[in-house]
Every structure is written in C-alpha cells, then in structure tokens.
Amino acid sequence: MNKQNQHFQALAGHALDIYRLASFNFKNPHSYTKFRQINSIRKRTNSSVFIETGTYLGVTTNRCSSVFEKVYTIELDEKLAAQAASYLSNKKNVEVIQGDALKILPTLLESESVNNALIFLDGHFSGGVTACGDLPEPAIQELQVIADHKNKVKAIIIDDFRCFGTDLGFPKKSEVIGIMEKHFDDYEITVHLDQLILVKIK
C-alpha cells in the first residue's frame, strides 16, 4: 500500500471515529485517532521522548517519529520486531528493541538519554500474531517499574482500557487505577477514547 492510500485510510478511520463519538456509539478508536491523542498529550506536557511497549507493525511508532525527538519501541515477538525494524529503518530517531518490556523498561528509564518521556503501554496479548509474555497484560507491573523513574516521565497512556476486567488475563480497571493513585499521586488521571491517561501536574 502506498503512502497516499495509507493516509486516506487513516483519515477515513479517524472520520469514522468522530462520527461514532458524536452518535455515542464509540468503542475502539482507529490508530490515527490514537496518534492524535498521543500528540495532543505530547504538546500539553512538552514530552520529547516516546516509549512504546507493543510495536506490532510499527504504524504508531512511525507516526510518533515525526513529532518526538527520540522514539523507543519494544516488541516481544522476534518476527514482528524484525519486520518493524525494517519498516522503520529510514527513521533515524527510532530504536526498535526486541524483548520483554518488563525487563527492558528499567534499563531504558535509567539511561541518561531518556527524559521528558511519554510512555504508551500497549504491549498486551491481542490474539493473532501478537506475542504473549508471562502476563497477557502487564500494565500493573509496568506501572510499578515506571514509578521508580517517574521523575523522567511526563505522561503515561494505557491503551485498550475497555479490555481491563473483561478479557482473559487482564487486571480489573479498579486495580490499575489503584496502582496509579498509590504511586502517581502527583499526576492527573483521566479516561478518554478507550485510553487511561496519566499526566504529571506541574
């Protein structure tokens, strides 16, 4: 698919999201709608580094590379990581890391090059070719890791919040919010467009 067709499909999906939102029949937003929300939070927080868990095909990574100074994306599945690395090979500010985000996040967040970060947690099992680690949805454990480095983090977005408490292996929504309230009391918590959002209060 060429870039023009990709752009048209992205806009069509976004337009459909707007229609569904206006008609109160909204569930899972398309990828371009998710990117627009990520970019809005980037502008609001002045985040310069984007960290993504769950690269999949690299579509969100690619879009974010145009607005963030540096992008790190972590993918558990070896084939998907290799495919994404090839797709993103011309993006000099993108680093594709293959492995388990729970093991990679601590080292990544300790790096001097990581600061003013917006973290997008989307590394859960979604069926199909997506990988499943020790936990189908490790968001709670990832939040506990991030809490140790929250001085470097401007915002956190957890994707597909509708799945929490309903899909197999996903923690309850209340559990995730409870962890946020415990470790991120200096952050604002909101839910919007199927995403749980933490934004540091200045």
User: What ranges have pLDDT less than 50 throughout 5 or more consecutive residues?
Assistant: none
CA-based gyration radius:
16 Å
What count of helical segments does DSSP give? 7
The major β-sheet equals:
7 strands, mixed
- H/E element string? HHEHEHEHEHEHEE
Q: Give the overall silhouette.
A: globular
What is the averaged pLDDT score? Answer: 87
N-to-C span: 43 Å
* Quaternary assembly: single chain
According to DSSP, the number of beta strands is 7
Helix/sheet category: alpha/beta
Strand content: 15-25%
Helix-residue proportion: 40-55%
How would you write the strand order of the largest sheet? 3-2-1-4-5-7-6
Topology (SSEs and partners):
Blueprint: H1 3-22, H2 31-45, E1 49-53, H3 59-64, E2 70-75, H4 78-87, E3 94-98, H5 101-110, E4 117-121, H6 139-147, E5 153-158, H7 173-183, E6 187-192, E7 195-200
Please, could you describe this protein's structure?
The chain is α/β, with parallel strands linked by helices and 202 residues long. 40% of the residues lie in helices and 19% in strands. Strands 3-2-1-4-5-7-6 form a 7-stranded mixed sheet, with helices on both faces. Helix 6 links the parallel strand 4 and strand 5 (153-158). Helix 6 (139-147) packs parallel to helix 7 (173-183). The radius of gyration is 16 Å and the shape is globular. The N and C termini lie far apart (43 Å).
